[in-house]
Design brief:
It is built from 13 helices and 11 strands. The chain is α/β, with parallel strands linked by helices and 329 residues long.
């Protein structure tokens, strides 16, 4: 039987994008013939290979996942097999792939917008007040100022609280498949996701752990050429799970300095960058080029990359060298 597969980034705006996409384009198939696959940029190609059987898949939506060489290669294999591919994204690093995707016959919705749900509105004939609120929540999760998203919203506090609850409840355990699917289903059904008991409970735990993590970063951080850098072992990466990006964003705002967090995740090293001056993607690109990685992406203010085959100490030392050279240049 033909089925649709929705592959989406497992964060706040990715989950909201998946729910909105299903509400508007896949309700005739949902839930029985819609497969949800939440992912992270570094593992998206492998997740798509595992999930998509071309003979059984009529529709593949890739939402809020930055396009890179490996992901493009997977898409390129699927289109000739008759799979209708839709790519919806807002990451600046995806831009260089857009023309090639369109030549393949992929339907592309892309813009340098605050969030992927905001990009998705281009394809929607209309959105109701519930959906409009969720789009604003996604924008705030991606760094927008709640006070500038007030049109149609009762209060700044309500919007900020909803974004914080969804974002942190996802980050506390980013591998919890059932919880992610619960949230997407709640969006599809039109429920107030941010008020779900499980969301409220997980948010409380995440808020506490985030505070612990921020103190850990502050204790070990050092400054290199105007950037703050901190590193974490594999054991610490397991403990703090999906909180690294949130912690980096909060600390960059608090310190008013760009930040790099390098963490060991066992078989790979992940680097998270934040820069209010819009240099995150540029530095990310430099590091990726210097260390032979083609698994990177993001925005000018927020970016990340994955490196394999090197130790945490090696990567930290190389990042420091790159930051120093860029400063001198």
């Amino acid at each position: 039987m033909d089925r649709a597969i929705v592959v989406f980034h497992g964060d706040c705006d990715g989950v909201i994008a998946a729910g909105l996409y299903i509400r508007h384009f896949l309700m005739d198939l949902y839930p029985g013939s819609v497969i949800l696959k939440f992912t992270q940029p570094w593992r998206a190609p492998a997740d798509i290979r595992a999930a998509v059987a071309p003979s059984e898949t009529a529709h593949l939506a890739i939402l809020d996942v930055a396009m890179d060489d490996q992901l493009f290669a997977e898409v390129k294999k699927l289109v000739p097999c008759g799979v209708k591919v839709v790519f919806v994204d807002h990451h600046a690093s995806s831009k260089k792939f857009l023309e090639e995707l369109e030549r393949l016959g992929v339907r592309v919705l892309w813009n340098i917008a605050q969030s992927t749900p905001q990009v998705l509105t281009r394809a929607l004939s209309r959105v109701n007040s519930y959906e409009e609120f969720l789009i604003k929540v996604a924008n705030v999760c991606e760094g927008a100022d709640p006070s500038k998203e007030l049109s149609g919203v009762s209060s700044t506090e309500e919007l900020a609280e909803a974004a914080d609850r969804i974002k942190l409840s996802l980050a506390i355990d980013p591998l919890d498949v059932d919880f992610v699917k619960l949230l997407v289903d709640a969006v599809v059904r039109g429920e107030e996701v941010w008020r779900l008991p499980k969301v409220v409970e997980r948010h409380g735990r995440a808020k506490w752990l985030l505070g612990v993590m921020l103190k850990a970063i502050e204790r070990r951080m050092e400054e290199v050429s105007g950037w703050v850098i901190a590193s974490f072992t594999s054991a610490e990466s397991v403990l703090y799970a999906g909180l690294f990006g949130i912690a980096a964003s909060e600390l960059a705002k608090r310190l008013r300095k760009p930040i790099v967090i390098v963490r060991d995740e066992g078989k790979k090293i992940v680097i998270t960058l934040r820069s209010s001056e819009g240099k995150a993607l540029e530095v990310c690109n430099r590091i990726a080029s210097a260390m032979g990685s083609n698994s990177y992406g993001g925005h000018r203010e927020a970016a990340s990359l994955t490196i394999t085959g090197k130790s945490l100490d090696e990567v930290v030392a190389r990042v420091k060298e790159i930051l120093t050279v860029m400063k001198c240049g």
